[in-house]
Automatic annotation (TrEMBL):
Keywords: Dioxygenase, Iron, Metal-binding, Oxidoreductase, Repeat
The keyword Signal is annotated on this UniProt entry: no
InterPro entries (UniProt xref): Oxoglu/Fe-dep_dioxygenase_dom (IPR005123), P3H (IPR039575), Pro_4_hyd_alph (IPR006620), Pro_4_hyd_alph_FE2OG_OXY (IPR044862)
Protein name: procollagen-proline 3-dioxygenase
First-tier enzyme category under EC: oxidoreductase
Organism of origin: Gossypium anomalum
The protein's Enzyme Commission number: 1.14.11.7
GO molecular function annotation: iron ion binding; L-ascorbic acid binding; procollagen-proline 3-dioxygenase activity
Source superkingdom: Eukaryota
Matches recorded under SMART domains: P4Hc (SM00702)
Cofactors, names only: L-ascorbate; Fe cation
PANTHER family assigned: LEPRECAN 1 (PTHR14049), PROCOLLAGEN-PROLINE 3-DIOXYGENASE (PTHR14049:SF9)
Domain Fe2OG dioxygenase, chain residue ranges per copy: 63-171
Length: 381
């Protein structure tokens, strides 16, 4: 059996999850696929970003239990944001088609963007039953059994980035994602001080988790770092003040403090690492750029004209981590950018800190109840 639920969640939730994915994703499990998991968010000091997942996660679990008549039987086995870029596809398969996946009983796929608007290709097909073909639309969810009764495929994405929130559910409590996440949260969250922005700065994973190359080739001479790639799609370059010795290992460079440049201007704000700058930049384009949410904020934003030596350092960074800008532009379509305003961007940095602190506080207030029930869910505070 398979079912389609129309417009299962609100537009704002879609935008927030899209912001999280574009800020935090790593290379996925298939060629041309990107992934953001809840365990990865916790591991990279961004545990507070699991909060926006919870309302729609709860709703999907309830809908699956209701549809298949298995109330109180299921645990969530996996939750992830998964995007498919140009070239990604998958042939006929069921979601439990490997010995290590046999615990998966049900699947829920919630579409965060739409066919024909945000991407081309990527149509979903069931081998049997109705509907045969699904053209993903924003807010729709497809739920089905994960076994061979619902063998399915996804056409190759030909342009854009197809984004879904995907969950698998199991009757086997030993595969409960929540129990594992609660242990990670206990280790990574409880020691932090409440409402301290510095404690909420993201920590990047290893560089190989961010390296994109065609068909997942291991060759570091082609491709790009997806963090620089997403910043490039937003119109930013990355500047490091220290001199680079090309004879040394530069793998830790992206962990160092850096600044953003835009066209011929160097922005004065210093970010703790590239993941920090990416989260702020994506937050700006989500919250501030089009809505003018921060127009009443008074912030001092400064920029200076790039010197020749600074431009050369930017070019050096790009030559190492952004080897193929044409590939970047193919994989990540340039944002539909509004006019960039430096003062608004400076205000967005403060708003990003407030946003992170608010979510972190919610984690701290919810965690005792999650530990008591061994389940992660929306807690009314």
């Amino acid at each position: 059996m398979n079912f389609i639920e129309k417009k299962l969640f609100f537009f704002f939730a879609k935008q927030e999850l899209e912001f999280i994915h574009k800020s935090c994703s790593t290379i996925g499990y298939r060629p041309n696929v990107f992934s953001t998991t809840l365990s990865h968010l916790i591991a990279t000091n961004s545990a507070h970003l699991i909060i926006p997942f919870l309302p729609i996660r709860d709703r999907l679990k309830e809908k699956v239990e209701e549809t298949f008549g298995c109330e109180y039987e299921l645990v969530t086995e996996f939750t992830g944001l998964i995007s498919w870029s140009r070239g990604a596809s998958i042939g006929w398969h069921s979601d439990d088609n490997r010995p290590y996946l046999k615990q998966r009983d049900f699947t829920a796929v919630c579409y965060l963007n739409g066919y024909g608007k945000d991407f081309e290709g990527g149509l979903f097909h069931f081998q049997d039953g109705e509907p045969k073909t699904i053209a993903p639309m924003v807010g729709d969810a497809v739920i089905y059994t994960a076994d061979g009764r619902n063998t399915h495929s996804v056409d190759e994405v030909t342009s854009g980035e197809r984004l879904t929130l995907t969950l698998w559910f199991s009757r086997d409590s030993s595969h409960d994602e929540d129990a594992k996440l609660i242990l990670l949260l206990k280790e990574n969250v409880l020691h932090k001080s409440n409402n301290v922005p510095w404690s909420l700065l993201p920590l990047p994973a290893s560089d190989n988790m961010y390296w994109f190359s065609p068909h997942q080739a291991s060759n570091q001479d082609i491709g790009f770092d997806i963090r620089l790639g997403r910043l490039h799609a937003l119109g930013f370059d990355v500047y490091y003040s220290r001199d680079m010795n090309f004879g040394s290992d530069l793998s830790e460079l992206l962990m160092e403090p850096m600044q953003l440049a835009r066209r011929d201007q160097l922005l004065d704000h210093k970010f703790v690492n590239i993941l920090h700058s990416l989260q702020v930049a994506q937050f700006y384009f989500w919250k501030a750029c089009k809505s003018r949410a921060f127009t009443n904020e008074v912030q001092s934003g400064k920029a200076v004209r790039l010197s020749r030596s600074q431009s050369e350092k930017i070019a050096q960074v790009n030559s190492i981590f952004l080897k193929d800008t044409k590939l970047v532009e193919t994989v990540f379509q340039s944002a539909d950018q509004c006019y960039f305003n430096l003062a608004t961007f400076s205000a967005a940095i403060t708003e990003w800190e407030d946003y992170s602190c608010k979510l972190h506080k919610e984690i701290l207030l919810s965690l005792p109840q999650w530990r008591a029930h061994q389940a992660i869910y929306s807690v009314k505070i």
